[in-house]
Amino acid sequence: MDKKSLTKNSFERISSFSKVASFINPTEYVIYDSRVIYALNWLLFNYAPEVELFTQPQGRNSELIKYDMQTIFRLSSKKYTYRSHKIAYHAYCKLIKQLSVDVYGVSRQPYLLEMLLFNIAPNFIVKDIEEKVRLKIDLELKVR
């Protein structure tokens, strides 16, 4: 995968393409996985000073499906944007490489952080969502 921008069509297949790229060059590319993006977006949304999120591919994990990030983000008052499909994958690889140095040190491979995010999504991230997100629905009927 070269560093050119991705088309919408190629980005729709990024989960598969990124697996191949990561296998060929694991120091440069990481897998763009739904669970990893779910965890990363939650952490970015809660702890980053400026929130620029990654589009999440369709996932199948039953725990993650319970809490739709799009809905949570929309209902919050926090400003956020999504990266364009043209640059999202390369920005994601760059961010994971930078963060892996912060988490594991200079000599660590970025796939270690990717695997950590993959692992914490259905348990730690879901638990954090359950603890932090509250929704109050006012069903009181108002008659005029």
Q: What profile does the largest beta sheet have?
A: 2 strands, parallel
Number of domains: 1
The secondary structure category is: mainly alpha
N→C terminal distance: 62 Å
Q: Give the neighbour order of strands across the main sheet.
A: 1-2
Cα-atom Rg, whole angstroms?
17 Å
Q: Residue ranges: pLDDT <50 for 5 or more in a row?
A: none
Helix fraction by DSSP (H/I, runs of at least 4)? 55-70%
Q: Write down the overall mean pLDDT.
A: 89
> How many beta strands in the DSSP annotation?
2
What string, H for helix and E for strand, traces the elements in order? Answer: HHHEHHEHH
- Global geometry: globular
Number of H- or I-type helical stretches = 7
Strand content: under 5%
Summarize the structure.
The protein has 144 residues and is mostly helical. Helices cover 56% and strands 3% of the residues.
Element layout with pairings:
Layout: H1 8-11, H2 14-24, H3 34-47, E1 52-53, H4 62-65, H5 69-75, E2 81-82, H6 88-104, H7 110-132
Parallel strand pairs: 1-2
Which keywords apply here?
144 residues, 7 helices, mainly alpha, 2 strands
